Amino acid sequence: MHELEWAPITLETGLRVLDLIGVLAFAMSGALLGVRKRFDLFGVLVLGCVTAVGGGAIRDTLTGQTPPLFLRDETYLYAALLGSGLAFAFGTRLARFERTLSIFDTAGLGLFAASGALGALNFGLGPLGVVFAGMLSGVGGGVIRDLIANEVPEIMYRSEQLYATAAAAGALTVWLLYPHVTPFQAQFSGAVVVWGLRWISRRGWVRLPVRRLPEDTPQG
C-alpha cells in the first residue's frame, strides 16, 4: 500500500526538483552577467529572473498554457530570485572564475531543454514540436538575457560551442526515451545529453560548419 503511494510522489518530486535546479542555475547565469556588466541590484534581479523563466514563458504562450507556469506557481519566481540574489552577493568571488557563468548556463540549458520537451509530450505535440519546444525552453531565456545586456545571443554565432543544437538533441532524447522509461529518467537523460554535447564541443571535438565568404578584394 505504501509503495504504491510512494512511487508517484517520488516521481513528481524528482521532476519538480530538476525544474527548480534549472531555474536556480539559469538565474545565477543571468545575474552573473548582470554583475559583470555592473548592473545595480534591481537590474541583476531582473536579468536573472528573465533568464530563468523567459524560455518557459515563451513555450507556455506558444502552446496555449496561459498564464505561464511561473505565474501559476510562484515557487519558480522565488527560486529565480534566490539564484539572482546569491549571484549578486557572491558575484565578485564567482566572477574570478571565467567558466562559472558557462557552468551555470549549461546546467540550466540541459534541465530546461529536457523539461520543455517533457511538457510538450504531455501536451500531445509530435516529434518536431517536442524538439522545438524543448530547444526554445532551453535557449529562450538566454536570448532575452543577451539582448537586454546588449550582447549578441550565443546561438547566432558560437558554432564551436554547441548551444541550441545541444538543446535540440536533449529534447530529441526525451522524445525517444519517453515511451520506454519513466518521465524522470527521460528528463534526466535528455539533460545529460545536453551537458555531454556542450562538454565535447568546448574541447573542440565537434562543431557546426560555418560558411566562410571570400575576403573582399581591394578595388582599383
UniProtKB/TrEMBL annotation:
It comes from Deinococcus actinosclerus. Residues 17-90, 103-178 form the Glycine transporter domain. Its main location: membrane. Keywords: Cell membrane, Membrane, Transmembrane, Transmembrane helix. The keyword Ribonucleoprotein does not apply. Belongs to the UPF0126 family. It holds the Pfam family Gly_transporter. This is Glycine transporter domain-containing protein. It is found in: Cell membrane. It is a multi-pass membrane protein.
